Amino acid sequence: MKKSVLFALLLLSSVFYVNAQHTNRQKRDLIEKNRWEEKGWHFAPGLTYTPSFKPKADSAPDVNPHARLAIYLELGRWHLFPGGGNIFNYYDYSLAYKRLSGSEEFEGNKGLFKQNYVLANFNINNIIQLSDYMFIQNSLGLNLDYKFSEKYETSGSPYQDNTDNLLFSLHYKLGFGIKATQKLFIIPTLETPILNVAEWERGRSDYGVFSSRYRPVIFTVRFAFLMKSKRNSCPPVPGGDGKNYDDMMKME
């Protein structure tokens, strides 16, 4: 737990430092608020990976865990905070599917697990704007996961740890954003849990399966879309309502 907290503090301190370095630089807003809605849709395909290790205290010496790749899919909504926010600039929420997979070798036998989850995410996001079209994104969030199916091939390990069907975690995300077009942002992102609440793992941020520990790491590419503002869907035309153009200019 101490390592997870220290990791989070170091990341947040780097956010505030870099943000301070860019405060005095004048840049064009990433979103023109008078032109676009301050909310929209996003989707994020990706991959999961499970870096693994043996617990020092109770794992058999012949156990060798291995990470495996699996898939991730997410669909959700994003909203700017009023006025663009201060430390955190927008929030998002989504529904997603993910598979976590890993393996373990023990005395010549190989164990394999595949866990399938549906989950709900909520994030608050800090934007550090680097240029008119690029930014760094730091996010803190919560995810509630439900494991609806799983498949195991036992390795004959003397330890048979497993996760609960319902998981609740605090996670951190680091992304690099690109304003690809006027309507589209592309944000490659890395995510990992920093504290598991349920299943409670004594404050740890990895999971016990078989005889080993596995840390979920999620790589996604988020596609966030802008929608034109309804407020300006029909821009006024000078003189279009019968008023004299010079009179309108005086009113301005």
Our estimate of the beta-strand percent is over 45%
Roughly how many Å apart are the termini? 60 Å
The computed structural class is: mainly beta
- The backbone outline, from C-alpha atoms, is elongated
Within the CATH hierarchy, at the fold level, what is the topology?
Porin
Strand order within the widest beta sheet: 1-4-5-6-7-8-9-12
Q: What's the total count of β strands? A: 12
Mean pLDDT: 82
Uncertain residue ranges: 20-25, 239-252
Query: Main β-sheet: number of strands, strand sense, barrel status?
Result: 8 strands, antiparallel, barrel
Put simply, the count of helices is: 2
SSE run = HEEEEEEEEEEEEH
Task: Count structural domains.
Answer: 1
Reported CATH architecture: Beta Barrel
Radius of gyration: 24 Å
CATH class: Mainly Beta
Helix content percent band: 10-25%
Quick gist of this model?
With 252 residues, the protein is mainly β. It has 2 helices and 12 strands, in the order H-E-E-E-E-E-E-E-E-E-E-E-E-H.
What does this structure look like?
The protein is mostly beta strands. It has one domain: Porin (Beta Barrel), CATH 2.40.160. Helix content is 11%, strand content 52%. It is built from two helices and twelve strands. It has helices at 2-21, 245-251; strands at 39-49, 52-53, 63-67, 69-80, 90-106, 109-129, 134-153, 166-179, 184-198, 207-209, 212-214, 217-225. Strands 1-4-5-6-7-8-9-12 form an eight-stranded antiparallel β-barrel. Strands 2-11-10 form a three-stranded antiparallel sheet, with no helix packed on it. A hairpin with a 2-residue loop joins β10 and β11 (212-214). The radius of gyration is 24 Å and the shape is elongated. 28% of the residues are buried. Residues 20-25 and 239-252 have low confidence and may be disordered.
